[in-house]
Design a protein that fits this description.
mainly alpha; 16 helices
């Protein structure tokens, strides 16, 4: 029997957030203080010290970076911050809290293999976005690149949670008919996961630039000249090209020339250094956040 299309609406997505976990307060506070990178040092350290898992991750990064003191391990957050820098600490906290946040949103019925893939894809895309943001001459916040990369496919978790049977049908149609997930989702829901993710971002009160980048990470269209949109579009395509998440749908079908031009990415030139950094940092991130 053919499943009839269902029209997912902005209003339904907005109303559903009352039953979802709230966007982590520490991420929202960091977003509000991006113009003053030292403003939330004490807040951040206090938060880390009261979360043993995240504290362990921060200390692991610090000890990994401190190759000069093999026998004396870094054991406190202030020393770790001084060693690896506040920005790096903030990235670890953002990544750890958002990965846990998305795991909470995922439905209990979601197969473990699918959740594992979703988690790996989010982390790999976030690493790619940060490295693209570092590579470009544009002034793009690394924190915004990280947050948006991690959350770029958040709409898929919403679809899997609230329309599990239809989402699974879309996944099967994507595989059986060799469609992109976007096309299969539009056929099934009237919108794709990128649009749903943008509506979620709006409902959580995230930055407009994050909302735009989530909503247009596959097809930038008129937003291709927005720096964060360009970073996330190119970043998620790099993740697919390198296939570090081991996805059955990792083929890159198209990269916006406008986004590439805006970022100054020359795909005909040498990109081995960028790809090497992405692979090394993605592997480290996956190990740290597992």
């Amino acid at each position: 029997m053919t499943t009839q299309p269902l029209q997912i609406t902005r209003d339904r997505v907005a109303r559903s957030t009352a039953g979802l976990p709230s966007c982590p307060s520490i991420v929202l506070k960091i977003l509000k203080t991006l113009d003053d990178p030292d403003a939330n040092l004490h807040l951040l350290v206090n938060y880390i010290e009261h979360d043993a898992v995240i504290a362990g991750r921060v200390l692991s990064v610090a000890n990994r970076a401190d190759s000069s003191h093999v026998e004396s391990k870094v054991s406190d957050i202030y020393t770790a911050t001084a060693l690896i820098g506040l920005r790096r600490v903030r990235e670890v906290v953002i990544a750890a809290t958002l990965v846990d946040f998305m795991k909470d949103i995922a439905p209990d019925s979601m197969p473990a293999s699918l959740l594992e893939y979703f988690w790996r894809d989010s982390v790999v895309t976030a690493v790619c976005c940060v490295e693209v943001a570092r590579e470009t001459a544009l002034d793009v916040s690394l924190e915004l690149a990280l947050i948006t990369g991690l959350m770029h496919n958040i709409g898929q978790l919403w679809l899997a949670r609230f329309e599990p049977a239809r989402f699974e049908s879309a996944r099967r149609a994507s595989q059986d008919k060799h469609l992109t997930m976007n096309v299969a989702e539009v056929d099934m829901f009237g919108v794709d996961h990128a649009t749903v993710g943008a509506w979620l971002s709006e409902s959580w009160g995230l930055n407009e630039s994050i909302t735009q980048a989530i909503g247009h990470h596959h097809r930038p269209g008129n937003f291709a000249r927005e720096p964060l949109v360009a970073v996330v579009h190119v970043g998620q395509n790099l993740g697919n090209a390198l296939d570090l998440a081991h996805s059955p749908h990792s083929a890159v079908t198209w990269i916006s020339p406008d986004c590439s031009d805006l970022l100054g990415m020359d795909w005909a030139g040498p990109a081995h250094d960028l790809f090497g950094r992405i692979e090394a940092r993605a592997q480290h991130a996956l190990e740290m956040l597992h």
